[in-house]
Amino acid sequence: MELPPRPRSYSFSPLAGFANEYVGWLAAALAETTERHFDFARRLPTELLDVRLEEAPSSVLQVLSHLGWADAYWLGCLRGEAIPVDAVLDRDRHEPPSPFSLEETIAACVAVRETGLAHLRQVTDPHQPLPWRGQGKLTVHGVLMHLIWHWTYHSGQCGEIALAKGHSHPWAFEQHVGRI
Questions:
Q1: Which CATH architecture describes the domain 34-165?
Q2: Contact 94, 57 (CB under 8 A)
C-alpha cells in the first residue's frame, strides 16, 4: 500500500502538559522532525534500509538507531539519570543485514523519547544551566535545539541514500507548487 506523504506543517502548537510553554513548543518541534523521519523511512523499500553509499559508515537503520541512542544520551543528561537503551539502538548491531526491523527500531526510539519527555514536562526554566561535566553550558533549550537539528541533519543523510539508489520521496510541497 502506498502511503501518502506527510503534509507540510509550518506552524504547530506546543505539546500539552508542559509546565513551560516554550519547552512544550520545542518538544513539538522535535516530535515533528522525528515523525517526518519515521514517515520517510517507512516509505522506503525494505531492502533500502540496510544500504550504505560506497564507503559510508551508516545505513538508514544504523542512522535511526544512532538517533535513538543520542536521544537517550542527551535526554538522560537533562534528567540527571541515564535512559536505558534497548539493544536495537546499538548502531553496530544493525551491521547489514540488520537483525532488527524498522518498526522495532522506531518503537525503541519512541520509548526513549517518552521517558525523556516525562522529565521535561516539569521544567519551568529552559535556559537554567544544569550540572554538566562537558564544555559549555547545558540547558534544556540547548539540548532540545541540538536534537531538532540532529534529526534534521540525519534525515538529509538518509534522503541522500534513498536518492542515490533511485528512490524519490513524494514531497507534499509539490502538490501546491509543482515539481521543483
A1: Up-down Bundle (1.20)
A2: no
Domain-by-domain residue ranges, the chain?
34-165
pTM for this entry? 0.90
Residue 42: partners with Cβ closer than 8 Å, 6 or more residues away: 3, 102
Alpha carbon 154 to its chain centroid, in Å, reads: 8
Distance CA 135, CA 132 (A): 8
Q: Which three cell numbers stand for residue 7?
A: 503534509
Give per-residue pLDDT as tens, 11-51. Answer: 789 999 999 999 999 999 999 999 999 999 999 999 999 99
Q: What is the DSSP secondary structure assignment for residue 175, as one 8-state letter?
A: H
- Per-residue burial over 139-165, b = 16 or more CB atoms within 10 Å of its CB, e = otherwise: bbbbbbeebbebbeebbeebbebbeee
